[in-house]
Amino acid sequence: MNQRALIQALPKAELHVHIEGTFEPELMFAIAQRNQIEIPYKSIEEVKQAYNFHNLQSFLDIYYAGANVLIHEQDFYDLAWAYFKKCAEDHVVHTEMFFDPQTHTDRGVPFGIVINGLQRACNDAQAQFGISSHLIMCFLRHLSEEAAFETLEQALPYKDQIIAVGLDSSEVGHPPSKFERVFAKAREAGFLVVAHAGEEGPAEYVWEALDLLKVNRIDHGVRSEEDPVLMQRLIAEKMPLTVCPLSNLKLKVVDDMQQHNIHRLLQQGVHVTVNSDDPSYFGGYMNDNFYAIAEALDLSNDELKQLAINSFEASFISEQQKQAWSERIHAL
Ligand code: ADE
Ligand code: ZN
């Protein structure tokens, strides 16, 4: 089988995707119009031209502005449903999607509106496409610890619909230690925990995520390679890193794809997975990320299969389901 056909055929799990980052310009315009909200672009072309980022913050400014048009439950449904259609095309059979409640509650949109819209899309995706999913709510790390505690409180009535809490937004200057107490409370309440660390921030932030937040996975984590002792720890603990190649390229974490370290990390035995992060902004969904690294880094078919197996192994599905997907992949 040629590599593109193999990538398409592989069942995959996506563990690092921000649902607000799947907002395609066409849908953004449609929702802005029906909600009668002004957006600072005259055309889809103009929106796409604005997606020219030089670092994480320059992206986040545009990403939060786009999310402002989401108001009603149906808006959140439409957003997630559009993403599930992409999953179906790319043979993503399981997804654990992030949402940023504070981006919406701070504008007066109730927590329940957000989660009900997303959940309804998750239910329909299971029924129509057979795609399973979990929701992960992220705290915005540029906001205060107190605001994160309030958000955790608002989530408690919906605890059964949220598998984990995460940590995203502007990394540098907002280390995991800032949220140590909130994460302890979230773990006590029964949430699993993940955190963005080592994207723009240093390897030290990955140590903090492990030791202070006690995470089940690290999101990004590519800068871990700068610290050999940390690398040994990640390998020994089989700690997943949810890597996002096209995101790293667009946000200039790497200068070109040939310099991306995902292949080296895989060869050294780190449990890396492939993910799209904010696919509408970074130029591609799951399979585009696979195509980009397969070509630039000359990955073998066995390595591509290993990456797909890793995605299920690192997910929050049952051991029995992990086993079943792994067997399906080996049989390809
Ligand atoms: N929010 C959405 N995408 C993000 C990323 N790549 N890093 C941090 N916060 C984010
Ligand atoms: Zn992310």
TrEMBL record:
SUPFAM superfamilies the record matches: Metallo-dependent hydrolases (SSF51556)
Free-text remark on how the cofactor is bound: Binds 1 zinc ion per subunit.
Positions annotated to bind substrate: D278
Listed InterPro entries: A_deaminase_dom, ADE, Ado/ade_deaminase, Metal_Hydrolase
Entry keyword set: Hydrolase, Metal-binding, Nucleotide metabolism, Zinc
Catalytic activity entry: adenine + H2O + H(+) = hypoxanthine + NH4(+)
A Pfam entry, by short name: A_deaminase
Biological process according to GO: adenine catabolic process; hypoxanthine salvage; nucleotide metabolic process
Residues covered by the Adenosine deaminase domain: 11-330
EC code(s) of this entry: 3.5.4.2
Site (Important for catalytic activity): H220
Cofactor(s) annotated in UniProt: Zn(2+)
Binding site for Zn(2+): H16, H18, H196, D277
HAMAP family the UniProt entry points to: Adenine_deaminase
Family that this chain belongs to: Belongs to the metallo-dependent hydrolases superfamily. Adenosine and AMP deaminases family. Adenine deaminase type 2 subfamily.
Name this protein carries in UniProt: Adenine deaminase
Source organism: Acinetobacter lanii
UniProt lineage: Bacteria, Pseudomonadati, Pseudomonadota, Gammaproteobacteria, Moraxellales
